[in-house]
Specification:
Pfam families: Aminotran_3 (PF00202). The structure is a single chain. With about 400 residues, this protein is of the alpha/beta class. It has 2 domains: about 120 residues, Aspartate Aminotransferase, domain 1 (Alpha-Beta Complex), CATH 3.90.1150.10; about 250 residues, Aspartate Aminotransferase, domain 2 (3-Layer(aba) Sandwich). It is about 35% helix and about 15% strand. It has 14 helices and 15 strands. It has a 7-stranded mixed sheet, sandwiched between helices. Strands 1-2-3-13 form a 4-stranded mixed sheet. Helix 3 packs antiparallel against helix 11 and helix 4 packs parallel to helix 11. The longest helix has 20 residues. The radius of gyration is 21 Å and the shape is globular. The relative contact order is 0.17.
């Protein structure tokens, strides 16, 4: 079967994947339809932190699928309470609102914080403003792309949703200056992933936390990609010892086996929502809850977060030894690493295709940056294997 031709003929053109057709995965490895093995250094954009097809998560999925998969939220199910308890105890949250995709979690946060702004803070109706950052990536719904600074995300999709103001990422003074009487929240990624693993200056999140406190605005951290061990901490906020008012998680919340996301917050903010005002047919379904609980348990039990910190430092140091003069910077935290080339000097996709041909799967972003983010179960010998190939192809 010509998989590529079928996709070209029958699929929409909104993706540009590398030309590899995968049909099996285990741990950090995936295989294509021809039996070739590859080391996955993208982890489905950090959704597969626990590795492909982790047996305990698979068992939770199959066991629950044979019992009860969906009730809608018209009725209660026995898995939801366990999900709430596991998530709250692990993340120190007061309340959890489960959804499905990361974009749904972002939309949920926007709706909830707007209601908080009107009902609790006392903002004039329809005047609420949320501050975001340039080069953000929070999803692709109409409202979310309304505050994107990426022309590709916006071209041809207007009119856009009002109520957002964008400032430079990593600039706490810019946040302070952007706040006005209608500001209700600041939403930011602790590390900008899609932008190319952009890490803010040390102390930025701590300063942001203080500014939000001083002005009674809600700090929303989008940890959908950075959370659940990716940066070497359970949540990236822990690197600066802060807690957000709202935290968005997804992707690795299911170990990549099922779409699960969640909005974590405190009672004051979450309690503004009343029955009928927000929801999801699949949000908090028993299958999703069982999978998420298993995914979180193996993350802790198998010390994947600690492994991410150690292996991330090792991988980063190995990449920094690359001698290619067109490399501008190698940066990262945990197993979230970006390799940036001098703009307009190299097409990073060409390197990704060459790496694919040599058994390493990664993906470019913004034309001149490659992201490396293997599953958190990766071992030293696996990284040595990857580094040998990367040095051969790029060095």
């Amino acid at each position: 079967m010509d998989y590529l031709e079928i996709e070209r003929k029958l699929g929409a053109k909104n993706y540009k994947p590398l030309d590899v057709v995968l049909n099996r995965g285990e741990g950090i490895w995936v295989w294509d339809v021809d039996g070739n093995r590859y080391m996955d250094c993208l982890s489905a954009y950090s959704a597969v932190n626990q590795g492909h097809c982790h047996p305990e998560i698979v068992k939770a999925l199959t066991d629950q699928a044979g019992k009860l998969s969906l009730t809608s939220r018209a009725f209660r199910n026995d898995q939801l309470g366990l999900f709430y308890k596991t998530v709250c105890e692990l993340t120190n949250s007061h309340k959890v609102l489960p959804m499905n995709s990361g974009a749904e979690a972002v939309e949920t946060a926007i709706k909830t914080v707007r209601k908080w702004g009107y009902k609790i803070k006392g903002i004039a109706e329809n005047k609420a403003q949320i501050i975001v950052c340039d080069n953000n990536f929070h999803g692709r719904t109409i409202t979310i792309i309304s505050f994107s600074s990426d022309p590709c995300a916006r071209d041809g999709f207007g009119p856009f949703t009002p109520g957002f103001k964008s400032i430079p990422f990593g600039d706490a003074t810019a946040l302070k200056n952007a706040i006005n009487e209608n500001t209700i929240a600041f939403m930011v990624e602790p590390i900008q992933g899609e932008a190319g693993v952009i890490i803010p200056p040390k102390g930025y999140l701590k300063d942001v936390r203080q500014i939000c406190d001083d002005n009674n605005i809600v700090l929303i951290l989008d940890e959908i990609q950075t959370g659940l061990g990716r940066t070497g901490k359970l949540l990236a906020e822990e690197h600066e010892g802060i807690e957000a008012d709202m935290t968005l998680i997804g992707k690795a919340l299911s170990g990549g086996l099922y779409p699960v996301s969640a909005v974590l917050s405190n009672t004051q903010i979450m309690d503004v929502l009343n029955p009928g005002e927000h929801g999801s047919t699949f949000g908090g379904n028993p299958l999703a809850c069982a999978v998420a609980v298993a995914a979180l348990k193996v993350l802790i039990k198998e010390n994947m977060i600690e492994n991410s910190a150690v292996m991330g430092d090792y991988f980063l140091s190995g990449l920094k030894m690359l001698k290619n003069p067109l490399i501008k910077e190698v940066r990262g935290r945990g197993l979230m690493i970006g390799l940036e080339f001098i703009p307009d000097k190299i097409n990073a996709r060409n390197y990704c295709e060459s790496l694919k041909d040599n058994g390493i799967l990664c993906k470019e972003t913004h034309g001149n940056i490659i992201r490396f983010a293997p599953p958190l179960v990766v071992k030293k010998e696996d990284i040595d294997h990857a580094l040998n190939i990367i040095h051969k192809v790029i060095g």
